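Model it.
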Amino acid sequence: MLFDLLRELFGFRDLVDILTVAVFIYGVIYFLVETRGFQLLRVLVFAGVFWFVAEVIQLRTLSWMFEKLWTIGLFSIVVVFQPEIRKAIARIGERTKVIKLSSLEERTIERIVRACRFMSDRQIGSLIVIERSHNIEDLIEGCVQLDAEVTVELLITLFYPPTPLHDGAVIIRGDRIAFASCVLPLSRTADLPKKYGTRHRAGLGITEESDAIAVIVSEETGEISLAVEGKLERNLEPEELRVRLTDLMGLGDEGA
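Modeled.
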């Protein structure tokens, strides 16, 4: 009897409708919690409860105000979380790992590792960004276009302090050095220890807004770090860096 009543009240379309709304709400909450919007989520929950109470006790002016603010609030969320939204949309269109990374050869990784070893031993600060499936040209500024082959000697020369291009990031696209002396967006994370300066924040920042990989050599300690997906892997040995880059660039299982 109860089942028949429920079947009359809720059809298949109603079930799909409810499940879709539930998944959407869960996605929004998960997005806010995982990004820097947790405080905003708390404000939205509080405002939602306040709005509900205003509707129940029929405070018309307050309800009207909340209806107008809802539209403004949605627009504000889009503006505040524009980098995260752009990154999420870009991830949807990613191609498979083998297709998007096939242009980077093992010899290029080897040259990057050798250059980082040299610079680490001599405490030459450097920031090497490896572009993957996302084009990052709209995220970088002040670049000098090179379009040069990746070589150990050129990478070292670009970061050697007396040279004009040493103060900035090098962008590697495929097996070519596309740009040098680039300014990158800085990370907004508060978890980074104070001993890490602008170079590390820039490396983290570009990986927070794209799927690029950043290799950082500290000028103060010579420590090699790897930034990927907004996380920093610290104090890597050259061999560990080689293994991580090979895996991240989809070259580790080619011989399988």
